[in-house]
Amino acid sequence: MNSYYPAVDNITMDVFPNEVLAIVGESGCGKSALALSIMGLHNKERSLIKGHIYFQGTDLLSLSVSQLNKIRGKDIGMIFQDPLTALNPLMRVGQQIEESMNYHTSFSKKEKREKTLHLLEQVGIPDPRLTYNQFPHELSGGMRQRVVIAIAIACEPALVIADEPTTALDVTIQAQIMELLKTLQKKSNTGIILITHDLGVVSEMADRVAVMYAGQIVELSAVEQLFNNPLHPYTRSLLNSIPSSSSDDDRLHVIQGIVPSLQNIPRSGCRFSPRIPWIDASHHEDHPVMHEVESNHWVRCSCYKHFYFPNEKVGEK
After folding, report:
1. Confidence of residue 245 (pLDDT cuts 50, 70, 90)
2. Carries keyword ATP-binding (predicted)?
């Protein structure tokens, strides 16, 4: 009998048209697991997904594979974090971009080629006609990521899930990819779920932010609220870990401990409490829930009211 350990617990959130919702957190907190759940890409024999995932009024979890395939690629696109493994090494770039059009549109061969060349141009490929006939291994990492984006937006989806789209890219290419996503969002009114661990990207790109820890959302708010008034101890710890030129202290803040493995995640009480042992156990809820502390600003567990860093005076924020 299979034993299941919930990688993602009780996630409730919305994403709206023309909005970038960033999901941020350490590696292993459940960000990619959530994205794969939305897309229905988990191995059904090795995973168990319960609940509801509504997209335009339809519960994606109630659909068969064939029904879901009519939505994936057409209404929901996904940008995977590793373009080299996301692309088929044996297919030319043009064929891979046209693949979703083969399934979801009635375009002629000429129309698909023209659309693909336009997409390659749209994502900033300098020579679309050359790239159309190339294989993935002939492209740089940044070029491959642009191709993955072209595939994701080929059928003009209403929602794009971008799973760490700038991983392993240099800083210049990262900025170009982020600017490209922002431009596409504004042009097509597309909603974007941006999964990242880069708080700098979040501050530049996001409209709202969901902070995840150990499979749960621990804070959810508009991006300005999060950076100006972070409340959950984990959020504050993340932001405190960012190097600052304005600080006199040249030491980096390190969050004590590590993200627990699936088997070791505590299923009751505050999941972040083992990493802030100086906060009294009585300040944590037995079954933490999300509290709306100000308009559209939600925080899990009441421990945020009592949190302080060890180098601060007790009670000061």
Report:
1. low
2. yes
Query: Which class is 20-206 in CATH?
Result: alpha beta
232 vs 289: CA distance, rounded Å: 12
CB 185 within 8 A of CB 157: no
Distance CA 271, CA 38 (A): 24
Residue 314 C-beta-side C-alpha neighbours within 13 Å: 3
- How many Cβ atoms from other residues are within 10 Å of residue 302's Cβ? 14
Residues 109-148 have pLDDT tens digits of 999 999 999 999 988 899 999 999 999 999 998 899 999 9
Tokens standing for 84?
A: 């080299």
The identity of residue 21, as a single letter, is L
* CA separation, residue 2 to residues 9, 46, 259 (Å): 19, 8, 24
84 vs 100: CA distance, rounded Å: 18
Distance CA 96, CA 119 (A): 12
Q: CA nearest 218: which of 192, 236, 195, 242?
A: 236
User: What phi and psi values does residue 101 have, to the nearest 5 degrees?
Assistant: -70, -35
Crossing angle of helices 109-122/93-104, nearest 10°?
A: 120
141-152 vs 109-122: helix axis angle to the nearest 10? 130
Residue extents of the structural domains in the chain: 20-206, 228-305
